[in-house]
Amino acid sequence: MRLIPHWIGGKHTTDEPERTAPVFNPATGDQTASVALASTAEVDAAIAAAKDAYPGWRDTPVTRRQKILFDFRNLVVEHGDELAAMLSAEHGKTLGDAKGELTRGLEVIEFACGIPHLIKGDYSENVSRNVDTYTIRQPLGVVAGITPFNFPLMVPMWMYPIAIAAGNTFVLKPSEKDPSTSNMVAELWAEAGLPDGVFNVVHGDKVAVDRILEHPDVAAVSFVGSTPVAKYIYATGTAAGKRVQALAGAKNHMIVLPDADMELAADSAVSAAYGSAGERCMAISVVVAVGKAGDELIGRITDRMRELDIGPGDRAKDMGPLITKEHRDRVASYVDIGLEEGAELVVDGRELTVEGFENGFFFGPTLFDKVSPDMTVYRDEIFGPVLSVVRAATFEEAIDIINANPWGNGTAVFTNDGGAARKFQNEIEVGMVGINLPIPVPLGFYSFGGWKQSIFGTHSVYGPEGISFYTRPKVVISRWPDPIHRGVDLGFPEHG
Ligand code: NAD
Asked: Which residues are catalytic?
């Protein structure tokens, strides 16, 4: 059985791990590898490697750091197909979706390539007689990232390109369910010329996470995952004096008003609910249909559901399996609960089998109608291909439903009325808003983050907020006697 080791100080670890976890191909249900689960000593070794590398890396000229970022970006592009195939085989998402994930991660690397510009400070001359004031942004030291299974390539890329570009050193603890791409990324960093110890990968579970959270040499932690774990990470990390950003779970609603383009709305609902088998924090899991929009949508949505091509990620166009058997069973149990609580099951995904892949963790697209906000299928984050339709009599009622929901990651409105769209963007208590598009994930030069129970901490992730999270501002007030510069040099000034 292939063993997936850690990457510490510029190389893979070779010690026999004390504990491992199985890694599956979700399409076949077969175990394909074992991943090492780090002990506290192994986490300590990764943090020590990052700490040793920090002084040299933070003092590396920013233009040199930028060059390594560009080289890394080019290597990721060059190996894109390989990374996408590796990701699809462990996660189960379609190859097309895996490539899309890579593209969205690359955006953040490309943003981070602009680091010389992004960390420029301010300068004010003569704030008092012969006194100048300026600001500089400096890195924090060793920072850590703890990431979820659903975007094993992209979510870590929301973090480490900016952290590393800004001069920090990084310890990544990826999801133990689909760990392989993180090791390949580590190899690409090394090939790009990143010094040993600047980027480290420790695989593991709560043991590794807890050690990161308590370790005195870790200055900051970025977390993305479920809400209960995010709350724990935020409380524990901040209590240990660390800077923490913890992005959490979601229940994303899409309002469809009666004047909307119903074909576009149905396309969007199906794409956003069932893409990646619903295992996206920005998936639409609730359509709030206002007035006659409900009856107009249901048929259009079911027609489209029938057309979906479902199968193993390397063959199917639309949807692959869920991540584990346990998760598949959990999603199925929600369908049972929905029926018990009186929701109307329009399409039932429980019995789906894919020929030749009977042991895979497949679950068919499922649609509930006439769901009410007190039902469990509405209240819980199911994180599978289950879409609920809630009927609302008015636009105001639809907005109230969303604002009463404890989560606030993403949302959307479908309408042809500009005034309604403007009212929505103004009143809705959600961090990322789509107008006639269902998954409003900001590009790499903006920042990503929800509101309410979808985030803990003040910083959202990547973009300008990422620069702010991974640096500290310093202000300098200076006064100098007239300096005399000596020496003649006719050469053209070079950097580095
Ligand atoms: P998860 O919370 O189970 O795991 C996330 C990370 O935390 C993993 O690295 C895991 O090993 C670790 N972990 C799990 N349990 C832990 C514990 N008890 N103590 C310490 N560490 C623990 O999440 P997941 O199932 O991998 O990912 C799906 C969740 O992530 C969903 O809730 C989804 O909405 C959320 N998510 C949110 C965003 C966002 O940007 N808001 C993005 C992607 C995923």
From this structure: 281
What beta strand segments (E) does 70-158 contain?
123-128, 131-139, 142-146
pTM over 0.90, yes/no: yes
Q: Tell me how many domains the chain contains.
A: 2
Dist. CA 405 → ligand 1 center (Å):
20
The answer to whether residues 205 and 257 belong to one domain is no
Do 311 and 164 sit in the same domain of this protein? no
Q: pLDDT value at position 51?
A: 99
Q: Is the CB of 247 under 6 A from ligand 1?
A: yes
The ligand 1 atom nearest the CA atom of 455: 41
User: What is the DSSP code (8-state) at residue 453?
Assistant: T
The protein residue whose alpha carbon is closest to atom 24 in ligand 1 is 148
Residue 189 near ligand 1, beta carbon < 6 Å: no
Q: What is the pLDDT of residues 459-480, one digit of tens each?
A: 999 999 999 999 999 999 999 8
Closest CA to 370 of 273, 287, 303: 287
Residue the block writes with tokens 């191909």? 25
Q: What is the pLDDT of residue 495?
A: 59
pLDDT band at 70 (very low <50, low <70, confident <90, very high): very high
Task: Tell whether 183 and 267 lie within a shared domain.
Answer: no
Q: Are residues 260 and 318 in the same domain?
A: yes
> Is any ligand 1 atom within 6 A of the Cβ of residue 181?
no
Range of the domain at 177: 2-248+454-477
> Which atom of ligand 1 is closest in space to residue 174's alpha carbon?
9
Instruction: Look at ligand 1, atom 10, and give the residue with the nearest C-alpha.
Output: 175
Please state the φ and ψ torsions of residue 280, each to the nearest 5 degrees. -130, 140
Does some domain include residue 180? yes
Q: How far apart are CA 233 and CA 223, in angstroms?
A: 7
pLDDT confidence bin for 483, thresholds 50/70/90 = low
Residues 49 and 150 in one domain: yes
